[in-house]
Amino acid sequence: MSSQESSGRPRVPEDYVCWDRRSQPTTILLCKSKSSQAALVPQEHQKFMEEAYNAAICYKMLRDMNSSDPLHLKYVIKKIKKMAQGCSSLVLETIHDYLKDNPEISNRHKFRLLQVLETVIGASDSLGEIWEKYYTQLALENMTKSTELEDIYQDAASHVLVAIFRHSWQTVTQQLETHLLNSVFPHRSLIYVMSKLSSQEDEDQRKRWEEQLAQIALKSRQFLNSDMWFKEMQEALTRPGWAPQEQPPEKAFLFTYYGLILQAEEDSTILRTHLWALLQTSHQLPKQREGIALTTGLAAARHLDDVWAILDQFGQSTPMKWSLHNFSSKKLEEPQWKWASSTLLLAYGQVAAKARTHILPWVDNILSRMVFYFRSSTWDDVLKQSFLTATSTLLEAIHRSEGAHSYELSQTGELLECLIALMEKEPQDSLCTHSRQEAINIVTSLCELRPPMDTDRKSRLLRACLHSVFALPQPDTLETHTCHSREPHNVQALYRQTTEALDRMLQSLVKQNPTSDELDLLLSHIYVWLTSEKAHERQRAMQTCVCLLEFVNHNHYLDPEEGNFTRIGKLAGMLGILCQDPDGTTQYHSLEGVGHLYPLLTHQKGGPEQVECQSPKEPPQTHTERAAVWSTGDQGDTTLIAQETVPPKEHIFQLGSNHAIKVIIRQLSLAELTDFLWTVIDNLGSARELHTQVAAQLLLSVVQEHGTKLETVAEMGQAIHQHLCTIGNPTAREQALQAITLLAHSHAPELVAAFLDFSIPLDSHALRLWRALGAEEPMSSLVLGMLLNWLRVRPLPPRTSGSSPQPKDKSYLRSLAAMNTLHELQFAREFKKAVCEAYPELFLALLTQVHYILELDLPTEAGAEQQAHEATPSPQSSMLRRSTSVEALKSLLSTTGHWHDFAHLELQDTWEYFTSIQTYAQGVGLLARAMVQNQCKQIKALLSHLLPSLQSQEERERKAAIFIFIEFLYSPALLEVLSRQQALAILAQGLEDPNPKVRVSSLQGLGNILFHPEKRSLLRRQIPPFLAGFFQNSEAMVVGVMKTLSDVLHCLGAQGAGALSLSVAINARSFFDDERDKIRAAAMALFGDLVATVANRELRGLRTQVCQSMLPLLLHLKDQCPAVVAQAKFAFYRCAVLLCWPLQHTLFCTLAWEHGLSARHFLWTCLMTHSQEEFGIHLSQALSCLHSRHHHIKTWAALFIGYTTCYHPEAVAQMTNDIDGKLLFCTFEDLRKDPEPGIREFATRLLSFFREVSTRSED
Considering only the top CATH level, what class is 1012-1140? Predict the structure, then answer.
């Protein structure tokens, strides 16, 4: 080394001088050249010693690098690298000397020296010419050297050459070019160096190398004609042994080098030959496919036509067709061809990327090929990823081209269909790849190109993308699935990147079409997920929604003059509900969304923003800045929001959710407010109780403030009914019903009409709505009046011919629904007063309704054939509505205090007359007769309402009115409302009625005793002959005479039979025990009619007959003939009324519906309590009945005596003789074998009691 070099050497830092001196041996050999020692001068002795010492230390460390101790080796290498940072030239010179002095060192030792040398050269600011040449040659020699370390040894030498390139690119390039062009296929290390040079971080160095590489490729095209070179190239490209996922850089670059050579080739034939041969290689490995595609793309940069022709030719080749499922009926077994279509997809992408400015005319053709291979190939992850990569590459190339924004893609729709299919096939239980993110990014790129997407395809794309992202499991579940994947990812980061891509896509769609309709479309698809039952899905959707609103609000994309944001009401409603979501993060973002919605509203309406909303200068475009937490979704823990993320207090979402929503509501138009309410109503049916409760609160709040101006109230009412059954929270249910009550103030007619639509049949939830509708007293009367109006709308369904279809008009159903509703509301507390006040109207309306129902069930004229063609109601439904119409009339009588009238019909089974159109008139007459006999207080009011009904246009109303009117002629109250002349005029007018039944009834009324008082004495004179007729031999004649006498008593009206009543009673009672059923029934019916006509009049003799008839009537309650039982019940009840017994309603109920020993005991109690004077008569009658041939009479008499004996044993003992006692014992012995268990038990107990009493009397 010369003195100039020695003096120019940088001074070594002082710390290296004293580096570990104690640890070094005392004898150190200073291995320096003689020339260097001779050049030293005395004044430089100290400096020389320091440098020599450091060189010796470095030399020693280089020698120690041969150590087998890994810790010591690591320590030594670290110290050498640190020394190189301070004095690289010293280390370079020492390495040179060490290699020169030790030529026989091991390959592993030299490998470590090469690694250190790379670091030293890289740390050097400059490299002298001597060292440059020496170490370049050293690297070249060792790059191709074969050792036991194989490639890593050569790579270490290659890294030295790469490090030298930084200091002297000309030298390295010249050496590489020389070795590449020596007509021998380049060694792998040369390609490795070239790959490293191509991937340098220094952009200037990389560009300089790319220029040199192009020149090398141009000079290398001569080898394309060499068969040996071509063969070696093919072997290098297809050599096995490399890992499929980690391809060595030299092989990857070899595809680039090959592509650059083909790019430089001018001969089309040679180019096509090499490309075809390349495509014939294996397509099994992913890096192989990528390499083939890269080579093809590079060749296309100058030979697009030739490359296109080769790709088309390969696509039509037989192996390629076999790999497509559309062309092969059997699965291709050769792995090398299985993914050939994926190679083609990548190749088309690379062709587009490398063609640069020439690509636009080819875009549609490339896209069509890509779509074809994607659809025709067997689906797997390889195909999916290749398609995504190729499409992204193509779109990037399009965006780089001039005129891209004016170019219209004809294949946009087909490409979107592929993306939709791809997103739909993504696994929904894991997130292990970037496929979702890449597909969404492709859509974002498409948004910037023409033409825009059509609405239908855009909707399907949004559904697929949102479902693919939002429906992913909770983060902990995703983490679990990722742990089992081959390439684990950071799930949180991957999901965040995916959602950011989704946000960018939505924003791009708005940019492409900045209209309110577009925003409506996007939010409509997000809205579906805001209503999800899963907390993590709602949270994700809300974050996306807020991000979109923030973007639109900040950039003012919506023009107020362009049109209203129609979905704003629906969105406001959903935000209002989610502001109370159980998930804390969703709550926060919902309130944030309200904050962004308010300025959007005010901007849309062109008004000032009265409440400031946070508007940052650069709004966050993705979830990154807003996702404060990684929520676990449905877990119970509520995430707390960091205090620093809370906006200032003046912002709208500091107002509190309830107040903020009220501020928003005040800004909504009527249509938007309607949408808001519909959203709230829809959430009444939510499976989440808290959402239901919040929805009910919002519903009530809006109705309280804006209920009078609302529209579509009828539809809202029907929707509330649909959700009412799912509301489990009592408070929420009451709030919903309270909202109905408030709506009734302004919208009662609409609600009544709407509620009628779901009142056939009337379920419990519908009844709650009806009760809420009339919860306030004034409204209950109005609602009742509206129902009466609907009840009176009674159209008959059109009668069609047998071949004609049944008309769809079902307007008559409203009348049936009103009938059902009125029936139920009679029992409702809210309508009790209104029903009582409207009794006359309700009575006439329901009575007419019964006739209408019977008309609906009349058979058609076309007969059975027509019935088969018409969609007529089933017999069960017809029976049900007939029953409902009668039950409504029954309940009106029973719930309004007219149970006496009800009892008359119930005890005589008169309601059966209302089930047939033929007996309808008789039923109405008997009902009106009962009202007259019971002196009903509503007769006057009914007469006032009858007069308009007699003039009605409806025939059925006139019929019902005249049937009632002719019975009311017997009531003294008639003359308080009408004079005789007015009554005669009404009947005379009825004679001209078109309906024959009305005319007949009017004619009968004209013969009433009211207009002919002289008929009273005439009829009374006919009574004795009728009584004589009772003793005729003919059963039919006797029954007829008795019925005729009953009619005479009815015609006599309130005056009755007078003194002849006693004779009628005695004769009628004599037939109570007749052997003939019909005569017994007729006699009891006559007796009951007689008692009814003499009510409230004291006739001592008749009263005795009534008292003496009570026990026989009681005993015949167990008669075998149903007709006798019915007449016995009615006669017994009328006698009890005449005798003014208390508990008459209980007595009626017992007679009408109760059976068994308890009912018998109650009737015995009533008889014995209120007829104590006739005790002996009743007991003697019972004793005489023990001789009856009828088992039921005998049994019932024995039970009566048993009850009496239990309570009055001494009286019974006094009145019975030995014969009666023995008969009584025998009777009870027989009753112990009675089929009824209760009677058997009672008989056994009584026998024991009798024996005990008998024993006491003997004592």
Answer: mainly alpha
